[in-house]
Amino acid sequence: MKELPLSKLESYLKEYYGQANEQSLFMKLIEEVGEVAEVLNIRAGRKAGSNETDENLANELVDVIHYAVAIAAINDIDLVNSIIEKDKKASIKYNHKINLEDYLKD
User: Fold this and answer.
1) Buried b (16+ CB within 10 A) or exposed e, 53-71
2) 22 torsion bin: left (phi>0), alpha (psi -120 to 50), beta (else)
3) Which end of the chain has fewer CB atoms surrounding its CB within 10 Å, N or C?
């Protein structure tokens, strides 16, 4: 299995999208979130449709991640640092036993 550092994905998407309009990327993100919802609704039996597989769900989740990271990348947001800092705040707020930064040290 290959590993993909988030920072490499950010660099790749920043190069790919360059000075893309963040609003158009956001609209694509929302479209993909809707497609995840559709897959989940079909899988749960709340909506008629063909059998949605794990592969369908994976593909739609990848699209969501792609556009979310692309928006961060073109705005020079360091997602790794942002995720760790946000998790630290949440672990304090919700009194978690461990935070992501400490988990990564183990």
Assistant:
1) eeebbeebeebbebbbbbb
2) alpha
3) N
pLDDT tens, position by position, 24-68: 999 999 999 999 999 999 999 888 887 779 999 999 999 999 999
Sign of CA dihedral 100, 104, 105, 106: positive
Q: Which two tokens stand for residue 78?
A: 């360091």
- Where exactly are the structural domains of the chain? 7-75, 78-106
| Helix runs in the chain, H state only | 6-17, 22-43, 54-74, 79-93, 100-105
CA distances from 33 to 9, 20, 24, 67 (A): 20, 20, 14, 10
Q: Which CATH architecture has domain 7-75?
A: Orthogonal Bundle (1.10)
Distance CA 9, CA 70 (A): 9
Let me know: does 68 contact 60? Beta carbons within 8 Å: no
